[in-house]
Amino acid sequence: MDTAGKHIPGRRELLRAAVVVGATTAAAGAVPSGTAQAVQAAGGPRFDARSPRFALAVLPDTQYLFDADSADPAPLEETFRYLAAERSESNIAFMTHLGDVTEHGTEDEIERAADTFRHLHGKVPYSVLAGNHDIASSTDDQRGDSPYLAAFGPRRYASMPTFGGASPDGYNSYHVLRAAGRQWLVLALDWRISDKGLTWARSVLDKHPTLPAVLTTHDLVHADDQGAAQLSDHGRRLWDRLIRANDQIFLALGGHYWPPGRTVLTNDAGNDVHLHVVNYQDRYYGGAGMIRTYGFDLARGVIDVETFAPWFLARDPGRRAPLEAENVELTDSVDRFSLSIDFDDRFRGFAPGTPAKPRPASAVMPRGTLAYWRFDASGMTTPNAGSPVVDGSVVRDLTGRGNDMTVRRVNAGGTDALTWSPDHHPGQPAHASLRFDGGTGPDRGAILTTGPKAPLNSEKFTRGYTIETFVRLPDPFEGNHAWMGLLSWEGRNGDAGKTTGWSPLEPTCSLNLSPERFLQFVVYPERQDADPTSWSHAVPTGRWMHIAVVNDGRHTVMYVDGSRIARNPTQPSTGIATLGKPFVIGATQFDERYGQGFYGWIGDTRIVGRPLRVSEFLNPFA
Fold first, then answer.
1. Is the pTM for the entire model greater than 0.70?
2. What angle (nearest 5°) sits at the alpha carbon of residue 91, between those of residues 90 and 95?
């Protein structure tokens, strides 16, 4: 349709992919697809359905590109080439068209548009819905046959692995995507959905009660020039009769109006629903096939939104016409923004999730495991939550190799310096941890140490090693905290004949935390006179993280939550100069004296005498 708005150009890239979890399956409908259960592939081998980051591409009102004898499908062809070419790199799960594919809905226009969509078919799964320019605008989805239905009806999508089904009239459809380790529902609803259509849409939601849903339609909300949106008359009908009572719908997208805009409404469950109008047909070249991408990032809890025109991006920048350069990408707050969403919390009302069960020690001790400690009943006598773990308490080495650890307070550490907690990383095998309350002024803390004859004390690790632990820092990170040790061996590097360190009194191996919350792993190798050191970024507070240090017999690499950090040393590093000294959890010794003890939680800790792959880490989400 028609209104007006202005935009500011800019430049931004699509999201890239990573790694994560897995979930549920479902698909049904009045016109079922024979491939509905194949949604796990989400439409092709180049899409990573396990990654916590994926993109949903949104294509609004392309009608001016298919307008009688002034049609030009070239911009849309380039958009489709871009989506197909970028599917793997940007982890594009799906594309949805918001209606008004053509200007007049004639058989010629519809056929030309349908032919253009063949550039995308079989490469990226997609949905299309009818806008008022594609059919007789005075009719609803009970209108019967039309050129649009013949070209963009259910048969077009039947071969797509995401297609779930369509309403009996054929004008409404749904898809089930598998992305970020779970399934998502996309509803594509006609410009004027009938009462029968609404009943069908509710039945789809009822048949997929645990799937978060994105609703797409043509006429939903309209916005002012500042991007503040409100429901249209038809949007109000959808809100009152479908959206507000169905908590699964967390995002609803429409076209039809310009300028673009957004609003947030509260549904009957008390949760936010984001409603957006997306339309660029008023811009240069009818929008030039401009797309908006919704970059879902479940690791960060955000949806990053950006808007750009692949047709203009493909041009040589030096040869772009002024209006092409102006419309390459839109970066004002209406067209590029981020939505903060705690996905687990938002979806909890209909998909509460099942917490992972504890895994037995025998399931997480791969070949070469030298020591494994955990703080549930399998590894120690557990007190009540929040109760002190008293000095002399023993934490068993579950490998049976004799590396049991004993608790003791250090410096001014009092009763509360070490307590037992059921808190744990969601991917941790044991559902328990120890809460350390170390600090300075005066120095205080608690530690666990291996016995004087423990085999681990003299292990040289010349064939490599993997040291893992789970850690959580308090939020807020209160108090006066200097350098803190998490894990270490007591031996001093000077006693090992090392000359390269900043002090001969420094331990031969330690994992520490700086006051700025940077992890530091420093090792004095068994064979080299060196002190290769890994440094992480500033790690977060208030949530659990998995830390792994992997040495392949030559070099050392640190990982945080399965992600390789940037500052790993290139210095050769073979083995650890352990000197027969005890291994310690909870502090680092300097000149035979412990400074501040650790402040936070420590969970399962494992040492393996060989380098592990990320897929072998204790954290299954890595």
1. yes
2. 95
